[in-house]
User: Fold this.
Amino acid sequence: MAGDKQLGKLKITLIKGLRGKKDDHRATVRGLGLKWRSHTVELDDTPEVRGMIGKIAYMLSVTEGGRRQG
Assistant:
């Protein structure tokens, strides 16, 4: 079934603080579940999560399946 497709996981770490950042970038960080610098979360690899990562990529370190993305 279509709903049974197994999603990959992404480990996302906030590497820059929120001080002086745009309000919409802060909201995106919160939307990913990140709370402070060096905080790491593990999320499903979905187009929605990828879009949020793309918006604030300069603030993040992303690891996918053991490979570092940025």
Remarks:
- Helices lie at 23-31, 47-55.
- Residues 9 and 44 are 5 Å apart (CA to CA).
